[in-house]
Design a protein that fits this description.
Elements: H1 8-13, E1 27-33, H2 41-51, E2 56-59, H3 61-66, H4 68-76, E3 80-83, H5 96-114, E4 120-121, H6 130-136, E5 141-142, E6 147-148, H7 158-168, E7 174-178, H8 187-200, E8 204-205
Parallel strand pairs: 1-2, 1-7, 1-8, 2-3, 4-5, 6-7
The protein binds zinc ion.
The site of zinc ion has 5 residues, from loops.
C-alpha cells in the first residue's frame, strides 16, 4: 500500500521542506521524477504540450548524461528542471560526503550539458538525513509532494491510480509522477485522463 497523500504529521516533522504550494488561484504543480528516459519523457512532453501545461522534472544526472537531447527538449519546452542526484541515491543509506558529492555531480552535468543551474532539489525515495538537508538548504529548496500517484507501483491497477490521483488533487497540490522505464507502460493509461481532469477542474499547472 502506498500513501496517496502525505500525512500532515509527517509534513510537520519537516517544516522546512516544501510539501505543497500556498493555495492560490486554483493552481497545482505537476512533477515528474527520474528522467529523462526515452519512451517516457518524450511521451509526457507531448501530452503536456497538447494541453499547454507545465511541469517540473526532477532529473537524474546520469540520465541527463545519457539522454542529453531529451533533457534539452524538456528545457526548451519551458518546463523546469530540478536536481534528483546523479545516481538516484538514498540519503539514509549514503554517507553524507558521498551524498552531497552526488548532488554536486548533478549540478555539474546540468551546467555542462544544458548550461543552466537549478535551486530545486528532491531527495530520491523522499529520504534524506537532517544533516544532509541542512547543507542542501543552504543553496536549494527541498521540494517534496503531497499527492503520490503510485504510478510506479505495479500492485495498483491503473484505474485506481487515476481515481486516487484525481480524488487527492486540489488547489495547491504538488503531484508526483515518474518518467522512467517502470512507468512507461502505465503513463498512457493514466496521464492523458489526469491532465484532462485538471482542465475540467480549472486547475492550472504552475512551475515550482
Ligand atoms: Zn526518484
Amino acid at each position: 500500500m502506498v500513501w496517496h497523500t502525505v500525512p500532515r504529521a509527517v509534513q510537520l516533522l519537516f517544516p522546512r521542506r516544501i510539501w505543497r504550494r500556498v493555495p492560490s488561484e486554483n493552481r497545482i504543480c505537476l512533477t515528474f521524477d527520474d528522467g529523462p528516459v526515452p519512451g517516457a519523457t518524450d511521451y509526457v512532453l507531448n501530452e503536456l504540450a497538447r494541453r499547454g501545461q507545465k511541469a517540473t522534472f526532477f532529473m537524474v544526472g546520469d540520465n541527463i548524461q545519457k539522454h542529453t537531447s531529451l533533457a534539452r527538449e524538456v528545457m526548451a519546452a519551458g518546463h523546469r528542471v530540478g536536481n534528483h542526484t546523479f545516481n538516484h541515491r538514498n540519503g539514509w543509506k549514503t554517507p553524507n560526503a558521498d551524498y552531497l558529492q552526488n548532488i554536486r555531480a548533478f549540478d555539474e552535468v546540468l551546467g555542462e550539458r544544458l548550461g543552466i543551474q537549478t535551486d530545486l532539489y528532491r531527495p530520491p525515495y523522499g529520504l534524506m538525513k537532517s544533516s544532509q538537508a541542512k547543507v542542501v538548504l543552504e543553496s536549494k529548496k527541498i521540494v517534496m509532494w503531497n499527492v503520490l500517484s503510485g504510478d510506479y507501483d505495479q500492485s495498483i491497477s491503473s484505474p485506481r491510480i487515476l481515481e486516487e490521483s484525481k480524488r487527492n488533487t486540489v488547489s495547491g497540490s504538488i503531484v508526483l509522477f515518474h518518467d522512467q522505464q517502470k512507468t512507461q507502460e502505465v503513463l498512457p493509461k493514466i496521464l492523458p485522463e489526469f491532465l484532462d481532469f485538471l482542465i475540467e477542474r480549472r486547475l492550472e499547472t504552475a512551475l515550482l
